[in-house]
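Duplicate of #3305? Posting structure anyway:
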């Protein structure tokens, strides 16, 4: 299995491309996957009843919303719009939810 994972090419969006060969971690998909796995692991560690992966965006143009929606769909969520909590289902024995909320842009400059 590990050899199959290593052979998968990484093609992050152009905004995340880097001249280094280890730029996969910069892609939105990787960031979302890492945050989601962390939410599940922390819910398990603290014996929480639910896990929530939350993206707090301060983009007025909803930058990368489409990446979040594609990720949520791959995870099994439907209608993953901004400012909504969506049910993904049980992962690692914990019910998982995803959300992407918009923060007021004025706080991003503070």
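Output from current build:
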């Amino acid at each position: 299995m590990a050899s199959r994972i290593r052979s998968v090419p990484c093609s992050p969006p152009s905004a995340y491309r880097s001249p280094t060969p280890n730029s996969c971690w910069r892609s939105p998909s990787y960031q979302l996957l890492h945050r989601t796995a962390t939410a599940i692991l922390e819910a398990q560690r603290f014996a929480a009843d639910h896990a929530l992966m939350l993206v707090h965006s301060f983009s007025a143009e909803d930058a990368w919303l489409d990446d979040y929606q594609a990720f949520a769909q791959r995870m099994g969520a439907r209608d993953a719009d901004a400012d909504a909590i969506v049910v993904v289902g049980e992962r690692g024995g914990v019910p998982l939810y995803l959300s992407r909320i918009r923060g007021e842009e004025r706080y991003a400059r503070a």
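Confirmed duplicate; merging threads. Strands lie at 51-57, 84-91, 94-102. Residues 48-110 form one domain.
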